[in-house]
Amino acid sequence: MRRTTFHRASLAVASLLLLAGCGSQSGGGDKGSGTVSAKPTPTPTATSTPTPSASGSAAGCTPLTSELTAADSGRTFCLAKDGAFRVTLTGSEQRPWKKITAAGDTAALKEINYGIMLRGGDAGAAYQAMAAGTVTLSSTRPLCAEPTASGQVSCKGIQEWQVTVRVE
Asked: Using alpha carbons only, how large is the chain's radius of gyration in Å?
């Protein structure tokens, strides 16, 4: 019993010393001010300042180069008039992407020949910028494969893909 009390007391003292040391820093020179703040110090980054896109607009969108994929979901892109791009969503026969649809100023983008044969489950489209406007492209696919035998579990979840394209 006495030995357990000694270990508990030692552990409590060690914890207090460790906690007392947190939040303070000693030293000087070129390594900092010698104190630690609970608030992070803002550091400049290359992306902290809006940069103009290829068409000269301010930030809020990323210049669209040539291809969009599932990883681009939720983003906004800028495209100059007469620019073109592809959308490639890689799926599987068990979890196929639906046809990519456009909503908004649909006259801003014209669907053109994709030029590549797709595998089963993939979705693809190619567009050319025709006029100024904003278009939302979207598609969906099931989160889970459909059961292939009785007694297997299925889910009703849907994975959504959506990007906004601003033609300027």
From this structure: 28
Which H or E run includes 23?
Answer: none
Compute how many other C-beta atoms are within 10 angstroms of the C-beta atom of residue 88: 18
Q: Is the pTM of this model over 0.70?
A: no
Tell me the C-alpha distance between 63 and 148, whole Å.
43
Kind of pairing, strands 158-167 and 133-142? antiparallel
Asked if the model's pLDDT at residue 35 lies above 50, the reply is no
User: Among 104, 113, 101, which Cα is nearest to 161's?
Assistant: 101
Number of alpha carbons in the 13 Å side-chain half-sphere of residue 10: 6
| Separation between Cα atoms, residue 123 and residue 49, nearest integer Å | 35
Distance CA 102, CA 84 (A): 15
pLDDT for 43: 31
**How far is Cα 108 from Cα 79, in angstroms, rounded to an integer?**
10
61/63 Cα distance (integer angstroms): 7
Angstrom distance (rounded) from CA 166 to CA 61: 8
For the chain, give the percent of residues with pLDDT over 90: 48
